[in-house]
Amino acid sequence: MFFGLLLGLCFSATAQDAKSVLQSANKAMGDVKSIQYSGSGEFGILGQAYTPGGAWPVNDIKSYTRTIDYGSKSAKEEMTLVEPTPIRKGGGGPFAGEQKQVNLVSGQYAWNQPGNAAQPAVAAAEERQLQIWLTPHGFLKAAMENNATAKKGNGGTVVSFTEGKFKINGTIDSAGMVTKTESWLANPVLGDMPVETTYTAYKDFNGVKFPTMIVQKEGGSPVLQLTVSDVHANSDLALMVPDNVKAAKIPPVNVTNQKLADGVWFLAGGTHNSVLVEFPNYAVMIESPLNDARAAGVMAEAKKLVPEKPIKYLINTHAHFDHLGGVRYFVAEGATVITQDTNKSFYDQAWKAPRTLEPDHLAQSPKKATFVTFKDKYVLSDGGREIDVYRIPGDTHNVVMSLVYLPKEKILVEADDFTPAAPNAPSPGPRSHEGTVLLYRDLQQMKLDVATIAPLHAFVVPFAELQKTASTEVSSASAK
Ligand SMILES: [Zn+2]
User: Fold this and answer.
1) Among candidate residues 257, 300, 255, the one with its CA nearest the CA of residue 454
2) Please, which residues have CB within 8 angstroms of residue 129's CB and are 6 or more apart in sequence?
3) Which of 52, 93, 175, 346 has its CA 20 to 30 A from that of 353?
């Protein structure tokens, strides 16, 4: 009790301490209105690990420049990415050659502008705004404006405050340098997902101190590793928010249905698809991608197509977040999750995290998730209907990637290994091609008689399209 009291006194967080710590840090680091830093490094793709629970796969950042104007709460991030050679494992939209990204935010507005046209990025605005306050100078400014408190911590003084809905902590060392910031972002799979950034190897750039090593982790694994080579204080960033960005809103969820066979529907209308299969006494949903909003739309469509039959099973192809983000919704609705054995412990663990930033359907009506897991194959057969789920051997996109096959209807449902391309679409690159070739070979070895492919991205195609892509591109890729 006595010690507790003493500790309480020593370590109590006070606004007064914070103020003096922030003032001396501001002096030590150099006050700036805006900053521009450049370098190169690696870009980790959140939620696209090769192994469930493993590190995010990385692409190489050939060049990187970020300009931030703190007063107008604006930032511009420019980077040129390349996929590493040899071909890496894991997910993340494949591309050929170089990919240029230009990500902007100004106040509440966010957009991307890699070319001439501004593409609204409404959903990214909050995170991009938060990222401004997670930089060393941005942290000090936001802390001073938001009645921060301070306490002793590992490696210095930990200063804490709340900016909007985000709680932000930062560590300031004895030299007055911001060495670490942390906050949390809402994620459909990881809940309140930690965003931790470490700043090391500070150098003096014309009177302004800036770290030359930046590592940002989201969900415990790096999303950005940057070696900073150049820093300019007070460089100009006058962003004009384009009219189409000002007018943009998050588009409503759109779910369309296409009948593939009796009691089998392809549910599309967005970036990710699902397939609904009717059994005599219940229905089965193959894949619940993205998030709660998409899942609710898909569920509503199922209720229209198969009224009065519950969704008894949700089949999940793999643990990538864009294919897993809506699964919790179906758990809340009472569905049992069918997924490969390796995924279960990751799902159990991830779904335990608190969800205070954006409580989803399952957080609001908690239910214990039930699973049916399998190693290589699972057969769901009932009342004359059959669905076979196979782990794809040797898949390079995800270590336990599964495909779904309806033997009677000769329909293949697969994610990410083959995505039919629109005519004249740019080449998706060697990694995509490798996945398609592997899928084609596996299907032949598994002796699956496929007539129709219902892919979980893009549109339904005859099997010949996969055959064509797998063989045509082999020659063009090997000719390079
Ligand atoms: Zn994937």
Assistant:
1) 257
2) 73, 105, 107, 108, 110, 164
3) 93
